[in-house]
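STRUCTURE:
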């Protein structure tokens, strides 16, 4: 599954430390950052997910925590 996230200014120049989906840690993921002006993070997450609403949690360097909702 691929997710595209618009990066906030406080997320720039930080590393992704951990990723959770629905409160469960995800070990099988890759991420890339694209764009110069409007930066976007593309997450490739392994695993099977059911249709419906899910919660994505990102833990970045410096204790930065971001939470997003997405629907399949």
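SEQUENCE:
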């Amino acid at each position: 599954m691929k997710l595209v996230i618009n990066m906030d200014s406080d997320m720039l120049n930080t590393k992704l430390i951990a990723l959770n989906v629905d409160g469960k840690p995800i070990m099988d993921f890759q991420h890339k950052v694209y764009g110069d002006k409007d930066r976007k993070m593309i997450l490739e997450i392994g695993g099977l997910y059911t249709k419906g609403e899910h919660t994505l949690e990102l833990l970045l360097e410096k204790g930065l925590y971001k939470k997003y909702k997405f629907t399949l």
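REMARK: Residues 13 and 61 are 9 Å apart (CA to CA).
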